[in-house]
Structure formats: C-alpha cells, structure tokens
Amino acid sequence: MTDLQFIEQSVARREAMILDANDKIWSYAELPYEEYKSSALLCDILEREGFAVKKGVAHIPTAFIARYSRGTGRPVMGILGEFDALAALSQQAATPSKSPVVSGAPGHGCGHSCLGTGALAAALTVKDYLDAYEKDGTIIYYGCAAEEGAGAKQFMARDGLFDGVDFVYTWHPASRNEVQQHCSVAIMGANFEFFGRSAHAGGSPHLGRSALDAAELMSVGVNYLREHMIDQARVHYAYVDAGGTSPNVVQDHSLVKYEVRAPKVHQMKELFERVVKVARGAAMMTETEMKYEITMAFSDYMSNDVLGRFATQCMMEVGAPQWDDDDYALAKAFLESYDPVTLDAIKAEIASKYEKEDTGALPAQKYSAEQLDALLAKPLDAEIHPYKDGPHPYESGSTDVGDVGYAVPTLNLNVATCCLGNVGHTWQMTAQSCSSLGHKGLLTAAKMLALCTVRTMQSPETIAAAWEEFRAKTGGVYHCPLPDTVMPPVGRY
Fold this sequence. Notes:
Blueprint: H1 3-13, H2 15-28, H3 36-48, E1 52-55, E2 64-70, E3 76-82, H4 112-132, E4 137-144, H5 153-158, E5 167-174, E6 178-179, E7 183-184, E8 186-195, H6 211-225, E9 234-241, E10 253-262, H7 265-286, E11 289-298, H8 305-318, H9 325-335, H10 340-353, H11 369-377, E12 394-395, H12 401-405, E13 410-416, H13 427-432, H14 436-457, H15 460-474
Parallel strand pairs: 3-4, 3-5, 5-13, 7-12
Antiparallel strand pairs: 1-2, 2-4, 6-13, 8-10, 8-11, 9-10
C-alpha cells in the first residue's frame, strides 16, 4: 500500500465523524476567545484518539495543544487548526441567497470550521501512520483560538510552544488549490482612549473638554498621515465608544480601535509609533488625556520555498477535490449571488488569475473568452497550480500564522472549498463552509496535509534545507512583535 492509499483509507474511515465535527463547529459559530464548545469538541476527539491534550495554553482558555508520540519522538511535526467565527455573518447552510440562521449572529465567513476539522483529520491520520508503520515521531495538533481577533499563535510562540518542532503545516479554505505563495503583512492593533470633562454643551460648553473631539481629530491626523506612508501600509479604525448619545452633553470619554499594517514588523512598528504621536497631538489640541493599550500584533507570513516545492508535489499527487455537476451548479449559484459591481470585479480577478501557466520560456497567455466563459459556467477550481520560488509579493491581509513562520519552518496550503472568485468574510463563505463544497475541500485538505507531513518526515534532507532557508530569512530566533507585558485580551477584544 502506498502512503497516499493509506492516508485515503484513514481519512475515509473517519469521514462521517470529521464532517459531523465541522457541521457542529459551524453551527456553534463562536467568536474569538469564546470558542468554548468548539475547542471542547476538538479536544474530546483528540483525547479519545490517544492524544495528550493540554488546555488553556498561552493564557487563552480556548487554545490547546494535543500531542501524540512514538519511539524517540523525533521528528516533531506540527499541524495548525483554527475554529473561530466572525460577527454578523450568520447564514443558512448551502443557501446561495442571503438568509441568516439568526439575524446579526456570527457565522463562519472565513471557513475556520473547515480549517480546524480538516487539520484534525490530518493529525489523526499521521498518528495512524506512525502506529501502522511503527515510525518514530511526534505529531502535535495546535488548537489556535481567535485568529480573527487578537490571535493566539504569537502568544503560543512567545511561550515557546513551537520550540523543538521540526516543521509545521497548515491550510486555509480558499477558491484555488495551491501552496500560498504571497506574503501577508504584519499588523498591530491598539485601543486609544481619551478622557475629557463633561459639561452642558449649550449652557457651559467652555467648561467641557471633549473626548469625542479628540478621537475625531485623531482620525483627521491619521488621514493626513496616509499620504506619507509606504504604499503597502494600511491603517484601519473603528469607534467603540463615542461618549454617549446626548449631543447636549460634552463627551468626557471615547475609545477608538486602530490597526496598522505594513509588510515587515519593523515597518509596522514605525508606522504605529507615528499613529501614537497623532493621538498625543489630538489630546493636546483638546486638552484631554490619552492612553493606549496594544491589544494584538502579528508578524508577516513568508512562504518557505523548500517546503513549498515539496508540498506542491504532494498536493498534485492527492489531486484537487472531485467536483460533480451538483457542486458546479451550487458554486455557480453562489458566484451569481454577488451584486453586479462585485461580480464584475470578481470576473476580472478570475480572468487575471487564470492565465495559461507561465512556463518561464514564454509570457503567460490569457485564456480565450470562450475558455473563461466555460470556467465561469463551472466556477470551481479543479486543478493544482504550480509553485514558483520567491521573491513573493505581499498582499494586505494578516494572520498569526506569520508568527509560527518566524519560530519554525512553516507552510500554508490553500484548498478550494468555495466558488472561484469567492469574497472572504461574507455570508456566501459561511454558507459554503457547511455544504458539499466545504466538505469535499476539507477532506481533500486533510489528505494533502497528512501526505505533506509524512513525506517531510521521511526526508531529513528536506527538513534540513527548510531550516537553512528559515534561518536565512528570519535570523533563526523568534521575536514576538508584542511587548512581553501584553497578555491575550480575553474578554476585552
């Protein structure tokens, strides 16, 4: 029996349990740091399967690690799982028209129910492989809470939970089947709080000092700052407390959240300090007081080319999810559920991404109009796309997987669970995460992760080369982007 045949049988044996776990976690739809039922479900399965589970790691009640070892315990292999949902994205399963289960409730609009359970199936399969072939090794499932919030992986890395690990694989639900090649940017978030003095806005406004004015002046200052930062940087904000709802009272308190993104950690920190200076200036202008609390920060994610080339071969061996006519029809319905402006943008994006693959000898050629029409009629990715070595471009998203990549050689696979062009963090993604598309995608991802893991385990030279590249890119020592004093903002984010 080949490695792949063994893996396929192992995944098939647990298919019903894994899909049931996905659908339950999908229905729980728990927000970051609140994933108590989702975390407990995953821990219960892992404990039943013989893993030693340590809960509440890194001062996060819903984060955990599950470890299974044989023989010498070397090499040590990690698989990352996530399971948090997003606010206000509730949607009926497999339904391509907007229909919330509960209006305003959370939903798995980034597919983390699939991510966590697909990774679970992979970890259990690697455990089966170690046992069946009496191999030395340790497989660790990392239960990573709150990726959509202030994160967990950077706190886990800071606490040394990736020390001694040889390599880590993870995956993410996507619209294409490929090793993630683009880099994600570093991010830092903070709460900025202003304190003023209340007064009657009509009778004695001169006695008041408006905290709301301070927050608004901060927004003005940051808007002027945008012209003087690098193109790849981003600054986002949201008002949490505008000081009340009575316009005839000078607001004595306000709180606004800011997030700063830039390609590298040092660039992100420099930009963040400039935002802090703007906040101080706003406080001076309004004669208010300001304090800020850093709540989160992620390092940038960089693909490991050694693992990227290696994993792409494994993905090609497994093959893309096997879609049928019903899947294509459902995907087409989801694609057509977007408004006309968004749909036009999606079609343009698909046209740009689905060029004929560049062989390096000739420039890539775009598909003909007829070929694109055929793709849009059956909008599911049914191929594995090749990997190209860096340098890799940056995209503006952020993930705490980047911190794992600064602690140990790490790679993310993207596996199709939704229609081509799907927009993340939408009700459409929520619905597809509990459909045949999500189910087939997560089971395929489980096989890919498991095959990548066992093949890497069998290739010491690949592990050594991955570490050589890792040290060249990172310096070989993890530095958490957060100050040591910053703890996970459980219940406060």
